[in-house]
Design a protein that fits this description.
Layout: H1 2-11, H2 13-33, E1 46-52, H3 58-73, E2 79-87, E3 90-97, H4 103-117, E4 128-129, E5 138-145, H5 151-166, E6 172-178, E7 183-189, H6 191-197, H7 201-211, E8 215-222, E9 225-231, H8 238-242, E10 245-249, E11 252-255, H9 256-259, E12 260-266, E13 283-288, H10 294-309, E14 317-323, H11 324-354, H12 357-364, H13 366-380, H14 387-421
Antiparallel strand pairs: 1-3, 1-4, 2-3, 5-13, 5-14, 6-13, 7-12, 8-9, 10-11
Length: 426
């Protein structure tokens, strides 16, 4: 069989050359299309379900949220394992799928099952899917350099401007904010005054929620003109909350400021973000979408950050805390240098030992073609160019030329035997 393949190749040299050129061109195209990352993504094919129920203990979260979700998500097809974790105010459920399952098909199946499991959860609790990233998807971290702004203003700028702008970058699954204070209106109720006016805390909550709303009305016609009647009720400052009526006491309206005080404050924090011991900072973590090119995503993100910088207040700028593209470029550059060094050394050794440039060329030409074909296979199996894959290619260069050297040596030996056998006798 091998002999027939060799004879077929020798009898059709032009076809072999055209196929080799075609594979090499395809390989060059695959090199440009292959995702680049510093480290291989060995994380599991998983979908994360996150549920928040603040103020509840881990045991309550486990009994009323985590257990119902885990028990209902186990019936999804092609699922290997379902894991649950409960903590103070939060529940995480990890649905692990088979490796060959498409991640977006998996997310669709989980979302369908969540619609059914919703009825088993407490009222008002809605589970959400985590970003379509992986365990190594945190490719970029940044902080805000804004010394003249307090942490609450920085967090508001991050949540309501920067985050939304950076999420539009292709390949970005999520921009997670960290640090600072999330601004909120805080109502500090005096229990003695509540008892005096005979109101409950739920009465106060319901009245404040009901008053933070716009109400639509009908059309009013006057002098040939039509006017749309609306009731404007959205809260714009803490004074609006203070004037909300809770009820009446002996015919006198009781407002929020009569039973407590309203203040601007920050949400409950379970930790802080310290920047190299220089104090607290506010910033974001950029999570890359599954299967994207990390280097391309980071470069596009930096371009977008330059555009966002133009809309930031004076004195506010970005400060990069972690940039994987630096590691990617350094790792890839190192591997490329070693790759070319190995190719050069192998070529020199082949030329020296064979001492025949045509034989050496037939061996050396295998190296770029084989490397190009390897990138075709990397794309076919969904693997990225990283330290592991490129190092494997570098280590395999010696093996690549072994076959050519052995075949050339065997050809020389057979030619020598044939010449000695047919050598004319003097």
């Amino acid at each position: 069989m091998v002999q027939k393949i060799i004879e077929l190749a020798l009898n059709n040299k032009l076809v072999v050359i055209i196929c080799a050129i075609g594979l090499f061109a395809w390989g060059i195209y695959s090199v440009r299309q292959n995702p680049i990352d510093a480290i291989p993504d060995l994380s599991e094919n998983q979908v994360i379900v996150f549920t928040e129920w603040m103020g509840r203990s881990p045991q309550v979260i486990e009994d009323q949220i985590t257990y119902p979700l885990v028990s209902n998500l186990e019936g999804i097809p092609k699922v290997k394992n379902v894991r649950g974790a409960s903590m103070f105010g939060m529940s995480f459920v990890y649905v692990i799928f088979d490796d060959n399952v498409d991640v977006y098909w998996a997310r669709t199946r989980v979302l369908e099952r969540l619609n059914y499991a919703q009825r088993l959860l407490p009222q008002g609790i809605t589970p959400t899917l985590g970003p379509d990233g992986t365990g190594v998807g945190h490719v970029f971290w940044y902080t805000l350099d804004a010394k003249h702004m307090d942490l609450g203003e920085q967090r508001a700028l991050q949540d309501w401007y920067i985050k939304f702008a950076l999420q539009t970058v292709p390949g970005v699954a999520e921009v997670a904010s960290f640090g600072g204070f999330e601004k909120q209106y805080q109502l500090v109720v005096d229990p003695v005054k509540l008892q005096f006016y005979n109101f409950s805390l739920m009465d106060v909550m319901n009245k404040v929620k009901a008053n933070n709303n716009d109400v639509g009305g009908r059309k009013f016609e006057m002098s040939g003109m039509a006017y749309i009647i609306r009731g404007l009720g959205y809260i714009k400052n803490k004074e609006n909350i203070e004037t909300i009526a809770i009820g009446n006491y002996n015919g006198i309206p009781v407002r929020v400021k009569d039973i407590g005080t309203v203040q601007m404050g920050g949400d409950l924090r379970l930790g802080i973000f310290d920047n190299n011991g220089e104090g607290e900072s506010v910033g974001g973590i950029v999570v890359m979408r599954n299967g994207e090119n990390a280097d391309k995503v980071i470069n596009a993100l930096k371009v977008k950050m330059k555009e966002v910088q133009k809309g930031l207040p004076d004195g506010v700028s970005f400060k990069i805390a972690y940039d994987r593209s630096t590691l990617i470029e350094a790792a890839i550059e190192t591997i490329k240098e070693k790759l070319f060094e190995e190719i050069g050394v192998v070529c020199i050794i082949v030329v020296i030992f064979l001492f025949h440039w045509r034989s050496a060329l037939s061996i050396i030409i295998q190296i770029p073609i084989t490397i190009a074909i390897s990138f075709i296979l990397l794309n076919a199996f969904g693997l990225s160019s990283n330290i592991m894959s490129l190092t494997g290619i570098a280590l395999a260069i010696g093996v690549i030329v072994d076959n050519g050297i052995i075949m050339s040596e065997n050809a020389y030996r057979n030619l020598s035997e044939w010449q000695n056998k047919h050598k004319p006798n003097n």
